[in-house]
């Protein structure tokens, strides 16, 4: 058992936040305090003796947040808008949620010398042309200003640079860069507006509603998908920080063996659904259509064809490496969402 500590997580109901909290509370004696504007994903944890939760907006509860930062050993700010459609359609909202919400938190952590574990993003590498992205060597290459999709990447990159600079003034920190983490609790398949959820729940929802699966740019772009369980394993090692090896580091957290084209993802999902007799017909009838970036996202979008992480830094420092294959991940995710659909059907009045 690792020694007890107090962890403050902002955006705790989100994909990473709820999964991390569940792991902490069920495997350690660490205490967790969290805040979010929703609580649907953490309902089962609310009565845990080591968990304190506040339902509220970070920016409207600043005094409470300041107090919790002062009481915590580790602060993990996970609140952000993180879907490409939002980058294009609501760039100011993305900037506000990513940069403005976090900068004052970072300054307070720096003032109090509180340990900060901050979520960077694989997006900071932008259109880097390296075969594999290396945390301390690869350039961060962004497109023109008129391509609003880069506001998320730019906001995160500036926060990375601010944190790094504060590190020289005594802020204890670790930056981690998730590469396309996926899991059952990521998004609901019920969202019907294309592009407002991440790719797997979007495609599953399309099939269940007999809608076309739209492949932007033909779906040739490739991503390195990482199972959330592997991601949380890495975060637990960062939090534990054995021998201080995570201090002042930037870690890519991804699975380069799970590097697939988006069109391949669509096919794997369709094949997975075919194994369920009550959903097989929907899967067999699934339509896959290619659309241009402009048709799907508008003029402000620009895509990246390849994004592969070099994870040697976290392997060497913390002994972490990914284990879950993409097929295993997708099968778990499909099973979860289909079970949820079945449960809703049972609950609906006849």
Keywords:
350 residues; 12 helices; 13 strands; alpha/beta
Structure description:
The structure is a single chain. The chain is α/β, with parallel strands linked by helices. Helices cover 41% and strands 15% of the residues. It contains twelve helices and 13 strands. The chain is globular.
Quantity of strands, as a count = 13
Rounded mean pLDDT score? 94
**What share of residues are in beta strands?**
15-25%
Low-confidence stretches: none
Helical percent range?
Answer: 40-55%
Describe the main β-sheet briefly.
7 strands, parallel
The assigned structural class equals: alpha/beta
Shape call = globular
Major sheet strand order: 3-2-1-4-5-6-11
Gap between N and C termini, in Å? 50 Å
Helix-strand sequence: EHEEHEHHEHEEHEEEHEEHHEHHH
* Rg, nearest Å: 20 Å
Q: Enumerate how many helices there are, as a single number.
A: 12
The gist of it:
The chain is α/β, with parallel strands linked by helices and 350 residues long.
List the SSEs and their pairings.
Elements: E1 6-10, H1 15-27, E2 31-36, E3 51-55, H2 62-71, E4 74-77, H3 84-89, H4 91-112, E5 115-119, H5 150-167, E6 173-178, E7 181-182, H6 199-208, E8 213-216, E9 222-224, E10 226-227, H7 228-240, E11 249-253, E12 259-261, H8 262-273, H9 280-284, E13 288-291, H10 293-297, H11 312-318, H12 326-347
Parallel strand pairs: 1-2, 1-4, 2-3, 4-5, 5-6, 6-11, 7-10, 8-13
Antiparallel strand pairs: 9-12
